[in-house]
Amino acid sequence: MEEKYKLVADTIRAYPLQLKQSWEEIQKMYIPDEYKNIDNIVFCGMGGSALGARMLDAYAFNLLRTPLEIVNEYGLPNYTNSKSLVIVSSYSGSTEETIEATYEALKRKAKVFAITTGGKLGEIIKEEKLSGYLFDPVHNPSGQPRMSIGYASGAVLSFLTKIGAISVTEDEIDQTISVMNNVIGDYNEGATKEKNLAVSFAQKIKGKIPILIASEHLIGTVYTIKNQLNESAKTFSALFDIPELNHHLMEGLRNPVKLKDLFLFIFFNSKLYSERVQIRYPLTADVVEKNGVPHLMYSPFSDKKLPQVFETLIFGSYMAYYLTKEHQIDPLEIPWVDYFKKELTKV
């Protein structure tokens, strides 16, 4: 088991290398000019393969020059056509829903860009002569899609920059990587446990249902953290966003009363949220406490949004990792997902 824990810890430490590799490799790629002449972008991916897109979609909400929709299901939106760019992502290259979306995109004459390590999707890239990023995940010793976040996010960010859908500079990537390396020093196992916030949060989450709260540029990252709590720490978790939750969730804290002993709200606040959203965080926490539910508060320290996105990712990944160790369970195996996929092939 210790070897598996080490693989996960080594992978988190390699997030900056994943980001650097994917960013640089796509920046060196030739992308046809026709990929810049588009009306919309559709991203298709499932599970860990879609996490990077979620993170970047949240970060780039008011930066993207082209509409972007993330699809986590079979098929494509009705509006997808020859003026659409469809990005299909599958770490293994064998994701059923993504393969179907790829064929549908080709049928509709959309421009297709694939992100994968190989498998069936890798074969389609070669057979159909598609543009794609077929990468070697040398910095993901865990082998798990959910732990390839640096690759997934770096690939999408680099490609969108390459086609002019967003503007991100080399300096911004370098600054982000520097912040990531700094916070790894704060949260890795070599850090002083008494001062390690990721360890402290994991210990408090044990035996609880973590209810994650985030907003704006961090909502996609916190979705990723929820995914890692589910898959790695085998822990049920839910995610809500401010300000939306202020219009309904607070009234739902009354019942069932027994659940109040299990809930633990974790607020991911940021000094870079819009002013009115920042004001809502302490007020929402006050309502939660008045309903007898405890809470924790996390705030990234970076003064720019992109570094905050990845700083929060590092913290959350370590938090999930330490919770896995608290539970003394295998951080890599996903028996129920594997069982489900096996049964699905029989139908």
Written account of the structure:
- By secondary structure, the chain is an alpha/beta fold.
- The chain has 2 domains: 167 residues, Rossmann fold; 133 residues, 3-Layer(aba) Sandwich (Rossmann fold), CATH 3.40.50.
- Helix content is 46%, strand content 14%.
- It contains 12 helices and 9 strands.
- The strands form 2 sheets. Strands 2-1-3-4-5 form a 5-stranded parallel sheet, with helices on both faces. A 4-stranded parallel sheet has the order 7-6-8-9, with helices on both faces.
- Helix 4 links the parallel strand 3 and strand 4.
- Helix 3 crosses helix 6, helix 3 packs antiparallel against helix 9 and helix 9 runs parallel beside helix 11.
- The two termini are 34 Å apart.
- Pfam families: bact-PGI_C (PF10432), SIS (PF01380).
- InterPro entries: Glu6P/Mann6P_isomerase_C, SIS_dom, SIS_dom_sf.
- Belongs to the PGI/PMI family.
Key features of this structure:
2 domains, 46% helix, 347 residues, single chain, 14% strand, Glu6P/Mann6P_isomerase_C, Rossmann fold, alpha/beta, SIS_dom_sf
